[in-house]
Amino acid sequence: MNKILKLLLFLVGVTHHAQQYNIAGVVKDFHDKTALRNAKIVIGTSTATTDNNGKFEIKNLKSDVYTIIVTHPDCDAYQSNIELSKSLNLEILLEHHSNEIESITIHAAHKSKGAIIVKTLDQSTIEKNATENLGNLLTKISGVSTLKTGNSIAKPVIHGMYGSRISIINNGVKLAEQEWGVEHAPNVDINNFEHIDVIKGASALKYGTDAVGGVIVLEPEIFKKKDSLTGSTNISGISNGRGLGLDLKLLKTWQNAWAIKVNGSFKKLGDLSTPDYNLMNTGMDFSSFNISVQKNEFKQGISFDYYVTNQNLGIFRGSHVGNDKDFYLAMTTPQPIYMRDFSYSIDNPRQEIAHHIAKVSAFKRFEHFGKVSATYSFQYNHRQEFDIRRGDLKNTPSMDLELITHQLNLNDLLEREKWSLETGIDLIYQNNYSNPKTQSRRLVPNYDKYSGGLYSIFKYKIANNFQAEIGARYDVTHYNVTKWYDIKDWTTNYAKDFSEFYVRTNQNRVLTNPILNYHNLSYNAGLDWKISPEFSIKFNYARVERTPNIAELFAEGLHHSAAIIEKGNMRLQNEKGNQLNLLIDGKLHLLGGLDFSINSYYFATNNFINQIPTGIQQATQVGPFPVWEYQQINAKMYGVDLDINWKLTDNLTYRGRGAYLYGQDTTHDEPLILMMPTNFSNNLEFHKKEWKNFSLSLENKTVLRQNRFPIHNSEIVFYEDGEEITKTVDFSTPPDGYSLWNVQAGFNLAKNLYTGVSIQNLFNKSYRDYLNRLRYFSDDLGRNFIFNIRYNF
């Protein structure tokens, strides 16, 4: 009996040991649960590959403890131990992020999810133009121009809109400076960034509703997780201005995802020159420093960043004159009335600007709650503008502004296979202090600004090639202002309707405390349809509102570096507009392939805030200046941008771009002022990698005359030989169009050593640009040779 029992137990054990099980499952993306095909699964000596639905199955495995390894080309490997005592059905989540963390492919037609329209300047373009400012660099994108004060000061213009209608995002921080000034250039160093995205239109609600024209996103390098030490040195020589540029970068990364990057830049220029004469007092000193310390993994990360830029910019001396007659002569003579030999000296008028950004950000991914991120930033902007003053005030700034900004952003991005939902909140506090020690009238008053915004963006994949999105944003802005008015201006314009803001009267001045509140509700909807591999359409509609900025409401007095007198209007209301954008991307199989992009847009707005010249006024002790006043009108703008990239041969590529813009003041039935003229450029580039990476490009840029402009001329009276003379000062008529040729070439001298040269305005053509506010007083820049040598290690 015992022998029979032992035999039965043995047979049961053998049967159990011989039992075989199956392991089936699905492999998905960690954050959006998208199925991953072609993932490789290894269990013991058995292997399998996932199908198009991310599914796999391995059969006939014996009971045992196994190590399961799952790999995918775009993912970190997954490894785990399992004890197999029954058939299993697994869900394996991989950190699918190599395209997000390890490398980014950048090209002119940015592959962005959703209906927003994005164009990109890549790292190669930034490196080849390392000495340019941000505004001038962005003109390489269709539909983007610059509003200039000379050449060193350039504000980007997107589809005819600039200033506070354009947001600049510096590594996740919305740049906060005195951006209302026409001659207030963005305080950024382009060499800190790997690529620059331009989002056209108002559909990017994530970045705020004041960005009616668009958003400029400055993106730094994404660091790889490996032990390495890299860096680069770039030295540039600049002929026009006899200047020097230097940029140094150093990056240390570790396998555990820690990284430290340090970057510094310096640029020095003397007086610039036109083809026929020097431009007195147009030199500049620029320096910047950036340090970043971070540990960014896929599931979580934290980073600390600090940026500082310092600029000392000369303002063309010929734009500041002492009396009415000289002002008329400065506006009408072919050459400036103030000239000197070349000099590195930067005298008054000039501006000094220091801008600091300190930022800490962190994120964490949760399987069910998405990617939660938080960013806090502190910004300090100190702007001093020095006018031509005599005696003890010579070295005292005429305007001395300190702007402190605190920002907090909380964001959650939840992604699934068919949809995504992004929600967030922005909180901002600003304090502006205008130093009374200048002994000049404060152009903008002291104020506190509190603002908060709540946004949500939902995207849904209707089909693999068709996606829709909707978004909404609500903002509230609170101004608490301390403002002095002339008693006559206060009594005439505001005393009746704003009596609650009155504080006290001191001689001929009235102290007020305006407290203003604004509420904005904006929303958008968009479609992204990839009709075929060669053809796609993006369309978006946005209903946006924008709050007036502090200068539009309260500016009063001489803006020294802009050489104008500005007058604000406290009665201004929110701008309210409707915007349509349509983008068509296509590819034709001609020769090596022709890519084209057509972006048409339409913008109609009520209460559009417009600034126009209304006369000439004598500023105390410093001479006459044109008066520019803010007014509120109804307006419309529409236009089209065109981009072409045609690979003619393996080594030869044609690139073309063009832009047309129509702007109309529908209240007064006249053209809008300072609208970008029609322009186009044609570029032929030869690139031979085998010839030490040699490249040569020839570009022609043509800007047509702006034939649509309003008439806002003024009369000026002065005495000549004892006789009173009245003259008309033409602020309105645009200059002639122009066509410039530019050349750029470069090659590798040795491994990791590159040299290049570019020639701007090759034929040294004399011209004036309609969007240069100093075109009244001088020609634009002449020929400029830029040599640079870069060593990567």
Question: How would you characterize the overall build of this protein?
Answer:
With 793 residues, this protein is mainly beta. The protein folds into three domains: 2-96, Immunoglobulins (Immunoglobulin-like, Sandwich), CATH 2.60.40.10; 101-214, TonB-dependent receptor, plug domain (Ferric Hydroxamate Uptake Protein, Chain A, domain 1, Beta Complex), CATH 2.170.130.10; 247-658, TonB-dependent receptor, beta-barrel domain (Maltoporin, Chain A), CATH 2.40.170.20. It has seven helices and 43 strands. The strands form six sheets. It has a 22-stranded antiparallel barrel. The relative contact order is 0.10.
Number of helices: 7
Q: Quick one: biggest sheet?
A: 22 strands, antiparallel, barrel
Low-pLDDT residue intervals, each spanning 5 or more residues: 7-17, 98-111
Query: What is the arithmetic mean of pLDDT?
Result: 89
What topology does this entry show?
Layout: H1 2-17, E1 20-29, E2 40-43, E3 46-49, E4 55-62, E5 64-71, E6 78-84, E7 88-94, H2 98-102, E8 117-121, H3 123-128, H4 134-138, E9 144-149, E10 153-158, E11 166-170, E12 173-174, E13 195-200, E14 214-219, E15 228-238, E16 243-253, E17 258-269, E18 284-296, E19 300-314, H5 324-332, E20 350-366, E21 370-386, E22 399-415, E23 419-434, E24 446-463, E25 466-486, H6 487-494, E26 502-506, E27 509-512, E28 515-532, E29 535-546, H7 550-554, E30 556-559, E31 564-567, E32 575-588, E33 594-619, E34 623-647, E35 652-665, E36 670-671, E37 679-688, E38 694-703, E39 714-720, E40 723-729, E41 738-750, E42 753-760, E43 784-792
Parallel strand pairs: 1-7, 11-14, 31-34
Antiparallel strand pairs: 1-4, 2-3, 2-5, 5-6, 8-13, 9-10, 11-12, 13-14, 15-16, 15-43, 16-17, 17-18, 18-19, 19-20, 20-21, 21-22, 22-23, 23-24, 24-25, 25-27, 25-28, 26-27, 28-29, 29-32, 30-31, 32-33, 33-34, 34-35, 35-36, 35-37, 37-38, 38-41, 39-40, 41-42, 42-43
